[in-house]
Amino acid sequence: MSQVDLDKLDREPWGSLIKQIQGDISAGQNPKVFLCGSIFGGTGASGLPTIARLIDNKLKRINVRDRIKIGCLFVLPYFGFSPPAGEDPDGIYARSEQFSLNTEAALRYYVTQGQEIFDAVYLLGNENFSQVQFSIGKNSQRNQPHFIELYAGLAARHFLLTPPPQKGAVVLISRENRNMLTWEDIADTDEVKQKLINATRFAYAWLVEIASELTNARKQGADRFGRLAPWLTRFYRTNSNQTNLPDFSEAKEQQAIQIINRWCQEYLRWLSAIHQCDSERVALFNTDIFSNLDKQLKEEEQNNLVIGDNRDRTRKAQDNPKRLKERLNPNQITPPNQGTMGLAKAVYLELSNLWGTN
Questions:
Q1: Are 339 and 236 in contact (CB under 8 A)?
Q2: Which stretches are tagged as biased composition: Basic and acidic residues (predicted)?
Q3: Interacting residues of 44 by C-beta distance below 8 A, sequence separation 6+
Q4: What does the pLDDT look like over 184-231, one tens digit per residue?
Q5: Predicted TM-score (pTM) of this structure
Q6: H/E element holding 169?
Q7: How far is CA 313 from CA 166, 317, 319, 325, in A?
Q8: CA gap 38, 43 in Å, rounded
Q9: What is the spatial distance between Cα 11 and Cα 13, in angstroms, rounded to a whole number?
Q10: Which residues contact 51 (CB under 8 A, 6 or more apart)?
Q11: Residues pairing with 247 in the sheet
């Protein structure tokens, strides 16, 4: 906070933020600013409301505040820890026994002074505390993923797409069982569920079916491998006759493959981790299927990923790797529809179709 100009808010990155807002308004848009942070530690409890007020004051000063909505996610306590034996009791570090007091102070500030700043506030916490390893912060802090992160993303989604109409609204969400999380506990269940299913099926299928064959094509030569995998030749140039397609061996295409591979791996690791919270059962996906990405994933598990998959046998039988590859068609998707990006789009959309959604 020492680097923030309390009067002008012109230093970076704040200057760029204000310029972006002004540019969006000049283009006829109505920008939204969404702040997110915990309010149970010292920095978040004091910093988050202060940053919001600085932005609010700046936007009023340049006469654009009425064109902008400001929302905030206050993350309430959801984990705890115990300092290791021998830690200086008078040292400067966060203490989980003070989380409730810090939270109370921050919420009191919102009630007395912050309501006029925010157009909407989202409150998110969990009464079942996960235990994390003690850290004084900075580089040594490594909190494990938690399903609270999923809800935080859903809060941002809600504010950006359908913000509450009344200024100062406080948005909460609850679940039916305090020790379990199911699809019924997810906001906007139908749409969000399908998006998560599509993303998870894409990540799994890409690693199991596509990435492995792309690796073989690179090792054996795309021209030779393309004879065994015709779908490859629909997206890449594997011989001199396909002049309109990008060359499979180009560095740009190979780099894109690696980027998608890493995203799929990191997404599945995160998804698996948020299913492992203390004293909770998260029942969205059967993450045991991909809990260890160092082992070979099994293609026959593709149809067992989703908990509560109630498709009939016929539908599941049609949802198989062979059918997926046969139906990959760049002509049925909008550009970019060639090369690695086109292939990834085609895989995602075809998996959605095989599931029964678009």
A1: yes
A2: 309-328
A3: 37, 38, 75, 106
A4: 999 999 999 999 999 999 999 999 999 999 999 999 988 888 888 899
A5: 0.86
A6: strand 169-171
A7: 47, 6, 10, 20
A8: 9
A9: 6
A10: 1, 4, 35
A11: 237
